[in-house]
Amino acid sequence: MDDRPNYITPAGYAVLSAEYRQLLGEERPKLVDVISWAAGNGDRSENGDYIYGRKRLREIDRRLGFLARRMKAAKVIDPAAQPDRSRVWFGATVTIADVDDMGDNAERILTLAGDDETDATAGRIGWNAPIARALRGAAIGDVRRVTLPAGERSYEVLAISYP
């Protein structure tokens, strides 16, 4: 992987852990039973249950390996325990305004979350996203310049809150 720490909230870690337990404890054993049953039916070359089951088992094993690596590298940080709430750090919910475009969509609310718990529709961006990197350490009133795929933009920090 890379050298950056995999910061994650306690809730995000719980989601990864729950998916791992569900795949390992429920889905994989059921699939192994289906594959065993299908293998006992004879010709495996035209046995759809066997072929699909083996393919799905490889997918599950790959996902289990990925989840295990991410959980091992995870550094769980509770945003509510942030000592410096006057600046933007991990877990902060930030209201920013696009200085370059003061139209109707100029204000955005973003939460800096772990890279494994991003959700653009909910406003959760990864800690290592370009805009999150630019906002790190910013205080209310600071203007930060961000290089995005669409070009450079300037954002002013209007509000900072923590859970």
Automatic annotation (TrEMBL):
Task: Give the HAMAP family listed for this entry.
Answer: GreA_GreB (MF_00105), GreB (MF_00930)
* Domain Transcription elongation factor GreA/GreB N-terminal intervals: 6-76
**InterPro entries registered for this protein in UniProt:** GreA/GreB_C_sf, Tscrpt_elong_fac_GreA/B, Tscrpt_elong_fac_GreA/B_C, Tscrpt_elong_fac_GreA/B_fam, Tscrpt_elong_fac_GreA/B_N, Tscrpt_elong_fac_GreA/B_N_sf, Tscrpt_elong_fac_GreB
Q: Which protein family is it in?
A: Belongs to the GreA/GreB family. GreB subfamily.
Enumerate the UniProt keywords alphabetically. Answer: DNA-binding, Elongation factor, Protein biosynthesis, Transcription, Transcription regulation
Q: Which residues form the Transcription elongation factor GreA/GreB C-terminal domain?
A: 86-162
Name the source organism.
Sphingomonas psychrolutea
Q: Report what the protein is called.
A: Transcription elongation factor GreB
Cited Pfam families? GreA_GreB, GreA_GreB_N
Give this protein's Gene Ontology molecular function annotations.
translation elongation factor activity
Give the domain of life: Bacteria
Query: By which gene is this protein encoded?
Result: greB
**PANTHER family in the cross-refs:** TRANSCRIPTION ELONGATION FACTOR GREA, TRANSCRIPTION ELONGATION FACTOR GREB
Function (record text): Necessary for efficient RNA polymerase transcription elongation past template-encoded arresting sites. The arresting sites in DNA have the property of trapping a certain fraction of elongating RNA polymerases that pass through, resulting in locked ternary complexes. Cleavage of the nascent transcript by cleavage factors such as GreA or GreB allows the resumption of elongation from the new 3'terminus. GreB releases sequences of up to 9 nucleotides in length.
